[in-house]
Design brief:
By secondary structure, the protein is α+β, with helices and mostly antiparallel strands. It is built from four helices and nine strands, in the order H-E-H-E-E-E-E-H-H-E-E-E-E. It has one domain.
Length: 154
């Protein structure tokens, strides 16, 4: 009996440590107030980012001044103007947090991209139901995979 309890305690310990360790790559959800501050910063300083866009679905902000690179597929379009992506950014920025979304840790469409060694790689703003994944290529390079879950049209 004592062995069962010891095994259970060890298993719970491993589970607690693995849940507490956030060692990229991962997406970090931003709370509503932080989203609004970041949205304003991105709108004001957009020329400091390499911006990729999937029409009506997502915008990816990769900072120019860091040594980290986000690789994208051919589906992404590199853009150089603000009009192209601003609607997606504003549409997917939360204006407030409600108790249920905070308690459940609901995933929003406004995410920080964190890589190996907790390095910041950029921001992704996307349709909440779309599927997104990251793959480490090397310490300073990651590939982002994006799969829209809704289609545009009949």
């Amino acid at each position: 009996m004592r062995l069962k309890w010891t095994g259970l305690v060890v298993l719970l310990g491993f589970f607690a440590v693995s849940c507490a360790t956030d060692s990229g790559p991962r997406f970090k959800n931003l709370r509503a107030a932080e989203q609004q501050r970041t949205q304003q910063q991105l709108e004001n300083n957009w020329s400091q980012y390499i911006i990729y866009y999937i029409p009506q679905h997502a915008v990816l902000f990769d900072p120019k001044d860091d040594n980290n690179t986000l690789k994208v597929s051919g589906r992404w379009i590199k853009v150089g103007d603000q009009k192209t992506w601003i609607a997606i950014l504003r549409q997917n920025t939360q204006t407030s947090d409600n108790i249920i979304s905070v308690w459940l840790g609901s995933r929003t469409g406004f995410l920080e991209i964190i890589g190996p060694d907790e390095q910041f790689f950029g921001y992704l703003v996307h349709e909440k139901m779309d599927l997104v994944a990251l793959k480490i290529i090397d310490r300073n390079t990651m590939r982002i995979y994006y799969s829209p879950q809704r289609t545009d049209g009949p």
